[in-house]
Structures are given as structure tokens and as C-alpha cells.
Amino acid sequence: MRKSKLCLFLIFSITFQFASNGQSNIPEIDKLQTPREYYLQVKQFGEFIDRFNYKTDWRGNLITEEFSQKVPRDSYLFYLINQEDQRLTNPNDSSYRVVCGEFISFIVNPSHPKEIKLYSGHVKAEALVNIVCFGKDAQITVEMIPDALPDRSARWVINGVESSLFASNADSVKKHFIAPNSHETSFINLKKLNEADNAIYYLSNPIANTMVFIKGLEQKKIQIKSIEKVTYSISFSNWEITVEEFNRTSSNSGWLISNIQKL
Fold first, then answer.
1. Residue 216: C-alpha distances to residues 23, 131, 132 (Å)
2. How confident is the model over 172-193, as pLDDT tens digits?
3. Most CB atoms closer than 10 Å: which of 81, 139, 170, 219?
């Protein structure tokens, strides 16, 4: 096991050094007049998925056999990791580099290679949103998930809203609740909702926050100003990665993996 991890670490270190030296061995890009940084940057999340799945090269063309011989998938995946992460650049701690190597080996496993499937239920987006609430600036976090419809069309839907702005009134929650032993009476006390002056108190906090947010929009008490930041979380069986946008002028920029976690 230790030999396996050491091997992964050495492979990752060599590839990481190659990548961090400016991707100097990429003839397909070096011959172009447009700065190669433009092609190496991951400009959209959809582009990140296509590169992660090893579908398109740096120019957006389908990957050819010639390209795969020069840049195999494991090397290609290294370019999608934030290489300015201090956990990678720290020479005294190799633990995160080992994790990255293990994850890439898991993804490119020849017998069972993995891909990101947007509508598989394993992808979610989290947006930090600037709003105006009752005339005051505030921020909320909106979680969204892709939703595939029966006619094979798709959309993003709001899966939850988080904000201290929508915290339920503690006294009201003590009064409006479904007792913890309600399962013993087949939840007969759900009839309490017939007389409820505010049924939102009976919802779980994430759902209640979402309802308050939607009502606020409908009543024009809340307005969305701008999107501060978007983060994607993608899960694979016992792994989860976080993808964020890094706005910088280096080759390693755009939508990149900011964290890899073994669950």
C-alpha cells in the first residue's frame, strides 16, 4: 500500500512540475498565433466537463488519437487542478498531492473510467447571491441542481436557500411544531396545519428559507442584484471535488478543481 501511494506521489510530482513550468511541451498550442494561455484557460464550466471527460482538447476540438498519445488523460486532468494551491506547492507536506494522484488514478482506471454526467444527480451548484431585502443589502446562498424532464429537456432548479435573514422566530417554532412522537399516532396532528396562521414554521429550515425567499420575490420585498460567486460540487461514489473559477492571467486559470476530498 505504501509503495502504491509513493508511486502515485512520484507520478503526480513529475506531472505537476511539468504543468507548473508553463505547459512548455505542447506543440499544438505553441504553433498558434493566439497566446496559448487563452486556449489553456478553462473559460466555462461546460468546457471543464468536456475536458474532464476527455472529450475535447485545448482548442475545443474532439480529442484525436494523436492528441491522446501526446497528452494522456491522467496528464490532461492535472491541468484542471488549481496548481497554485499551497497544499500542492508546499514541499514539506505531500498529503494533498497523494490524494490528487489517487483521485486521478480512480478516474482514469482503464477497467472502469469515470465521467461527469451533469444530470446524474451528482452535480450541484452553489451561488452566493447579492440581494436587496426590505431596502437593505444582504447575501444569500442558493443551491441549485440540474433537473432532467420526462421529454428529455432539462433545467436548473433551486434546491435550497440559506441565510440568517430567514431564520424562523424561535417563539413561533415552539408553538407551531409537529410533536416528536407523532409517528405513534400516524401523524394525525398534521390537521394542525388547517388552522395554522403561518404553515412555514412546520417546514425544515432549508425548505422554509426557500419559501420565504420565493414569497419575498413575489411580493417585491426581495430583489436579486448580482451573483457574487458560483461553486460546483461533484461526487463520484467515495470522492467529491469542488470546482471554482480562478480569474488570473496564467495558463492555469478559469474553472478548476479547488479541492479533492475522499469521503
1. 49, 11, 10
2. 666 778 888 999 999 998 988 8
3. 81
